[in-house]
């Protein structure tokens, strides 16, 4: 029997807001001290996670007050629509291997959606799903360790919360190339709500980890996403109150990276977004790609997708986070800088829109937020500039041609006056495309991976990309990474994703690694994932 953990699907509007959240009001950082910290056993010695005897669970996503479906009648012409592509994406494929999920040795699917995420290091690739972890050899794709239940990391330092089986969600793994360390973050889904953090003690993802737990006294920090920056590990969340009856707004946090790298006692500093909570959903923190650090003293960047209550939207928002762990009163979270973009209609965040072959059951559109990750790169040389690359899901077409597409952006000059350098909504035909993730390599090539589905195909994993010589705002013709042999059917399971991930190899700064889900045969709670590497022929 399926167990459904429900946090609430329609929340009443918030009548009152804290003064600290009003536009223009000065805020002080909330300082969260650790509950516990310690050192884990080597990950490679932890018991395998076979999920035997467990019942499948789906975790419905809490909705903010004015989230609503977008109807086909509302969808007009997209201001950056790319409705055709000719030149095949100019990449060389690398490894294409089975990731965590159905068919992976020793693994049983227990949860949906998978929340697929992967990161690449010097010699290894690490993948997280709900809620397990595995490590692969980067050269061969062979399994180095796992699958391991993520709660096993915290089983000794916090057994009743972060270490409790079935109590975790929304995992993210990143590689800190500056330190050669792995960073894992996941949340608990029962009160008291906690951030569970693990930072590897060496560059070996199968070794020991410095462990931390922090209690979020404001409530549930839903849908957390993270980014690596020189002065901190940064985190964003959709903040709900402790009783899950009200949405408080997007939350931005900074974790003391220098302390976590050594296993010392650490704190988190957090701000709630100062804009109106009911009109803005989750943010994303920037994640540093490449060997060149941001300019000295640069803040961390957070980008937000304002939610349109109706009609067309033309805006993104950028915030700046300066953190001071020594004197928290000096920390600031400022903004937003409003970035005008080409007009778009968000994809619906509700169930029942994306079609699949052979079933009337449809999939979640995931239009409520920017998609993981917000990739940052600092270019030096003849034309120095800073770039942010990100994507989200939009609605294009109308009537019977209504479909979803990944809208992608390259934003430049985030430290001064952020501007859209280029943008596009990739929809070369009537196939539905969504759940994207984007990144940029050292020469400025951009890769965009996503899911694709329609009434004539099962969900597939695809990608496209562009080189600096490709016309601005355009992607090349897509390639298919993996074609699922089934559609997600039964048990009312419409959730898909909730995210995928595109990462860049820290060694050559050219090779992309993409991870996403598919369904091997018609059914529910039987998803699989694939890890795929490739690079553009122009990058050496």
Which characteristics define this entry?
540 residues; mainly beta; Neuraminidase; nine-stranded antiparallel β-sheet; six-stranded mixed β-barrel; 1 helix
Strand order of the biggest β-sheet:
11-12-13-14-2-18-17-16-15
The CATH architecture name reads 6 Propeller
Low-confidence stretches: 1-25
Question: So what's the CATH class?
Answer: Mainly Beta
DSSP helix fraction? under 10%
Largest sheet: 9 strands, antiparallel
Tell me the CATH topology. Answer: Neuraminidase
How many domain regions? 1
Terminal Cα span: 52 Å
Strand content: over 45%
Q: Choose one word for the global shape.
A: globular
Oligomeric form of this entry?
Answer: single chain
Q: How many whole angstroms does the radius of gyration measure?
A: 21 Å
SS elements, strand count: 35
* Mean of all residue-level pLDDT scores: 89
* Structural class determined from secondary elements: mainly beta
């Amino acid at each position: 029997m399926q167990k459904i953990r429900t946090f609430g699907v329609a929340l009443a509007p918030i009548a009152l807001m804290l003064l600290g959240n009003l536009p223009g009001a000065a805020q002080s950082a909330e300082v969260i001290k650790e509950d516990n910290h310690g050192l884990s056993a080597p990950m490679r010695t932890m018991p395998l996670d076979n999920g035997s005897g467990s019942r499948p669970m789906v975790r419905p996503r809490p909705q903010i007050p004015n989230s609503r479906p977008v109807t086909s009648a509302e969808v007009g012409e997209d201001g950056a629509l790319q409705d055709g592509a000719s030149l095949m994406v100019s990449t060389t494929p690398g490894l294409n291997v089975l990731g965590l999920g159905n068919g992976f040795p020793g693994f049983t699917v227990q949860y949906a959606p998978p929340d697929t995420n992967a990161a690449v290091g010097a010699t290894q690739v690490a993948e997280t799903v709900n809620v397990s972890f595995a490590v692969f050899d980067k050269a061969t794709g062979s399994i180095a360790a796992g699958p391991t239940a993520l709660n096993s990391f915290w089983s000794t330092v916090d057994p009743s919360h972060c270490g409790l089986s079935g109590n975790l969600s929304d995992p993210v793994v990143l590689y800190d190339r500056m330190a050669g360390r792995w960073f894992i973050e996941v949340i608990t889904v029962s009160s008291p709500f906690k951030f569970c953090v693990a930072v590897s003690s060496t560059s070996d993802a199968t070794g020991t980890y410095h462990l931390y737990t922090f209690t979020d006294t404001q409530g549930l920090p839903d849908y957390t996403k993270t980014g690596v920056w020189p002065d901190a590990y940064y985190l964003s969340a959709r903040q709900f109150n402790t009783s899950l009856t009200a949405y408080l707004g997007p939350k931005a946090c900074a974790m003391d990276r220098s302390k976590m790298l050594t296993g010392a006692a650490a704190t988190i500093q957090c701000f709630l977004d100062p804009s109106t909570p009911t009109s803005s959903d989750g943010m994303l923190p920037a994640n540093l790609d490449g060997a060149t650090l941001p300019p000295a003293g640069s803040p961390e960047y957070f980008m937000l997708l304002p939610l349109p209550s109706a009609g067309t939207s033309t805006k993104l928002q950028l915030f700046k986070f300066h953190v001071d762990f020594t004197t928290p009163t000096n920390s600031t979270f400022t903004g937003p800088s409003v970035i005008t973009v080409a007009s778009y209609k968000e994809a619906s965040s509700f169930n029942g829109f994306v079609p699949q072959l052979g079933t009337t059951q449809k999939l979640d559109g995931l239009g409520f937020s920017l998609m993981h990750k917000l990739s940052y790169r600092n270019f030096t040389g003849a034309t120095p500039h800073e770039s942010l690359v990100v994507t989200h899901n939009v609605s294009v077409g109308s009537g019977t041609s209504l479909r979803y597409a990944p809208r992608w952006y390259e934003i430049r000059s985030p430290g001064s006056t952020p501007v859209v350098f280029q943008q596009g909504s990739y929809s070369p035909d009537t196939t539905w495309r969504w759940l994207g993730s984007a990144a940029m390599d050292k020469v400025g090539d951009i890769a965009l991976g996503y899911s694709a589905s329609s009434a004539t195909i099962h969900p597939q994993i695809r990608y496209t990309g562009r080189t600096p010589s490709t016309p601005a705002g355009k992607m090349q013709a897509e390639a298919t990474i993996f074609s699922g042999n089934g559609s997600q059917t039964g048990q009312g399971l419409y959730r898909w994703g909730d995210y995928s991930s595109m990462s860049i190899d820290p060694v050559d700064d050219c090779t992309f690694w993409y991870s996403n889900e598919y369904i091997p045969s018609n059914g529910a709670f039987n998803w699989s994932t694939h890890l795929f590497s490739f690079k553009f022929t122009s990058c050496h």
